[in-house]
TrEMBL record, chains A, B:
<dbReference type="GO" id="GO:0006355">
    <property type="term" value="P:regulation of DNA-templated transcription"/>
</dbReference>
<dbReference type="GO" id="GO:0003677">
    <property type="term" value="F:DNA binding"/>
</dbReference>
<feature type="domain" description="HTH merR-type">
    <location>
        <begin position="1"/>
        <end position="57"/>
    </location>
</feature>
<dbReference type="Pfam" id="PF13411">
    <property type="entry name" value="MerR_1"/>
</dbReference>
<protein>
    <submittedName>
        <fullName>MerR HTH family regulatory protein</fullName>
    </submittedName>
</protein>
<dbReference type="InterPro" id="IPR000551">
    <property type="entry name" value="MerR-type_HTH_dom"/>
</dbReference>
<dbReference type="InterPro" id="IPR009061">
    <property type="entry name" value="DNA-bd_dom_put_sf"/>
</dbReference>
Amino acid sequence: MPTIKYYLREGLLPAGVLTSPNQAHYDDEHLRRLRLVRALVDVGGLSIASVREVLAAIDTRDESLHSKLGAVQEAISQPSAVELDPLAIEDVQAFFARQGETECVDVTGSNVTHMLAAALSVARSVGHDHFRDLLDPYLEGLKIIAQADVEYIAGRGSRDDVIEAMVVGTLIGDAVLKAVRRLAHVQVSRDVIDGRPDSDPLN
Amino acid sequence: MPTIKYYLREGLLPAGVLTSPNQAHYDDEHLRRLRLVRALVDVGGLSIASVREVLAAIDTRDESLHSKLGAVQEAISQPSAVELDPLAIEDVQAFFARQGETECVDVTGSNVTHMLAAALSVARSVGHDHFRDLLDPYLEGLKIIAQADVEYIAGRGSRDDVIEAMVVGTLIGDAVLKAVRRLAHVQVSRDVIDGRPDSDPLN
DNA sequence: GATAGTAGAGAGTGCCGCTATCCATCCAGG
DNA sequence: CCTGGATGGATAGCGGCACTCTCTACTATC
C-alpha cells in the first residue's frame, strides 16, 4: 500500500477523486493502471522513469497507433553508455538499406537503433565481427512473430484495448520471447544432434 | 580503472599473476574476460551476481555444452517476485506438452519456465487471458532464429570460442531481437495497411 | 468524544554498483 | 642510494533508485 502512495506521488497513477479532503475514490480504471504499472516493472524490468514515459505515450491522445508503438519502444529501450563502433553503425545502416528502410539512416536518432548499434558494437568488442550476419535470419523469424502480434492486436475491440495490447504484446512479449527462445534452442540443437550424431558440435 | 579492481574483488576477473608482491601481470585472457563482463553488464543488463553465475557456468569444465547453455539461460533469467497464476502455469504445461517437452513439467523448477509462467500470469492480470495463443507462433519464428544461432555457434573453432559464442549469441542476441522486432513490427503493420487500407486497425 | 482510518508530504532505509582513500611495497630515473 | 610515482590489497564512502516510515491534519464511525 505505501507503494501505491509512492506511485501516486511519482505521477504513475492519476489522483483519485476527492470525496472529502482526506478521502479519495479510486475506480476500476485506477486498478487497471496499477496492474499495468506492476506489469511493466515486474516483467518488463522498467525503471519508474521509463514507466512514466510509456504511460505518457499511452495517454497522448493525438497520435496514431503507429507512433504510439514507436514511443513505447523508445521508452523501453533506455540507451546504454556504450560507445558505438563505427563498423557496427555501418552494419546497422547496411541492414536498414537492405530492408528498404531509408528513414532510419541516423542511427543515434532513436533509442532502438542506438541499442542495435550498441549490441553489435559490444559483439565486435568481444571478437564477434560477424554477428551482423544474424540480423537477416533474425528479421525473418521476427516477421512471423510480428505477424502474430499484429493479428493479436487487431483482434482487440476498443482503441484503449488496442493500445494496451500493444504495450503488453511488446513488453511481456519480449519476456516470453526470451523464455521460449530457450526451448527453441533445445529443440533445434536436438535436431542437429539427431541429424549428425557423429559430428555433434554441441556436446 | 577502479572498476577493474572492484571486479577483481568480486571475483569476476581472475587475479593476475604476481610477479612481485605488488606487481601483477594481466594477459590477453584477462582483457577478453573483462570485455565479456562489460558486455554482460552493458548490453545484457545483468547484475554483478548474475554475471558471476554466468562466468561460473562458463568456467565449469566437466559439463556438456548443452547444460552450459542451460546454466547460462538460468543465470540470465533472474526470477521475479510475481506470484504465479495457476491458469498461467497450466498454459505453460499445455504448451510444453504440445511441443513434446516432458521433462519440464515442474514449472517452478527452472528460472526460464518460471519467467514464462510469470509473464503469462502478468498478462492475465491485465486482462490478456489469451496471450498464450501467441506461444506457438512465437516458437515457430524462434525456431528460425535458433537455427541461425546454432549454425553461428557451430561455425566456431575451439571449445572456448563455442562457449563464448553461446553466451554472446544468447545475451546480445536477446538485445538484438528486441531492437529488430521493432523493425519487423513496422514492416508487417505496413504490409497490413497496404493490404487492406480501408480497414486499417493500426492507425 | 474516543478511535480508527486516510491524504499528503518529507525524511529515512537498504541495496547495488561503483569510487575514493590509505598504506606498504616496488620500480624507474637520477 | 634516494626519491617520486605507480601498484596491489583492503576498507570505507558515495550516489541513485525504489521503496517505506513517519508525521500532521483531517474526518467518518462507534
